[in-house]
Design goal:
With 305 residues, the protein is α/β, with parallel strands linked by helices. It is 27% helix and 28% strand.
């Protein structure tokens, strides 16, 4: 059975707390494991969450601030230590190439893992060898160059058993119909569209440290799951603007405008002892499902429509 879920490894912003580790988010997507923004302590959080280095197929870094990237050094070394048998694609802003190289070679270790770097210079589709989805990026608005990510599965067709029975179709012929799009039956051509219905592909967006900008809305449009920072409450909007972040209310606005199905709030400032205001402010703007992320939480991707 396919498994599509978000595993939360950390939810703190600049300073971790006793309850919140630095950032880290693993998206399980069938046989893929996409690790986003591995902050300090990610490797240990992976152990608590039951995530192994072998689960990782891709790593995406939005920007090179420490709470989003310092954990990369340990993860990269763990990939080699565990002898991960497949290449791991790594995406990151090209302007941070020196930081990427430093993190990957920060200490002595026996390098056996294969990393395939994909430095990002502009918005658009990213190379994703072997992936059953497309991966896109768009620039965000932060004091350092930052990019968000969007994963989109192509639409497909879902077989309707009742229509197969009406036409007397069963067995290997159904497989040929799915493969070829049409089959000849008793002198008549039966097309796949006749016995199936549209199955919308699922989508996921990951948006970290940013002010409101075009890239935020581009990435979020119509997604099933929107993971987005909500560093501040609305009363601290001036701080959000100054330091390049969003408030919980703004995150709710993004989700509402996008028509997202599930909104995941994360990346919380250590100044807040309670996140009740984050939830209520997001709820004022967005009436869909809202999850206030907690470390080691597992959130299923909403099922297909």
């Amino acid at each position: 059975m396919s498994q599509r879920e978000l595993v939360i490894l950390g939810t703190a912003s600049q300073v971790p707390t006793k309850q919140r580790n630095h950032n880290g988010y693993l998206l399980r997507w069938d046989g893929e494991g996409l690790l986003f923004d591995p902050g300090e302590g990610t490797q240990r959080q992976m152990i608590y969450a039951g995530v192994s280095a072998t689960d990782l197929t891709r790593i995406g870094i939005t920007h090179f601030h420490g709470d989003h990237s310092l954990g990369l050094a340990g993860v990269v070394q763990r990939i080699s230590l565990d002898k991960v048998p497949h290449p791991v694609d790594v995406y990151y802003p090209a302007s941070g190439e020196e930081y990427f190289q430093r993190l990957c070679t920060s200490t002595a270790y026996h390098q056996t893992g294969e990393l395939r770097p994909h430095p990002i210079t502009t918005a658009g589709e990213l190379a994703a060898p072997g992936a059953p989805f497309t991966l896109r990026t768009a620039p965000l608005s932060h004091p350092v160059e930052a990019f968000g990510y969007r994963l989109t599965e192509a639409d497909g067709r879902r077989i309707v058993p009742e229509r197969l029975r009406e036409l007397g179709l069963s067995g290997p012929v159904v497989g040929r119909l799915q493969r070829d799009g049409e089959v000849e039956i008793d002198g008549r051509t039966v097309y796949l569209d006749e016995v199936s219905e549209l199955r919308r592909g699922q989508s996921f967006a990951f948006i970290m440290d940013t002010r409101m900008c075009d890239g935020v809305h581009e990435l979020a449009a119509g997604v099933d799951m929107l993971v987005i920072e909500a560093t501040f409450v609305d009363a601290d909007t001036h701080l959000a603007t100054e330091f390049g972040h969003l408030t919980a209310g703004q995150a709710g606005e993004v989700a509402a405008r996008a028509g997202a199905r599930t909104l995941v709030l994360t990346h919380f400032s250590q100044r807040y002892r309670s996140l009740d205001d984050h939830l209520s402010e997001a709820r004022k703007e967005f009436d869909g499902e809202i999850v206030v992320a907690e470390d080691l939480m597992r959130i299923p991707v909403p099922p297909r429509h």
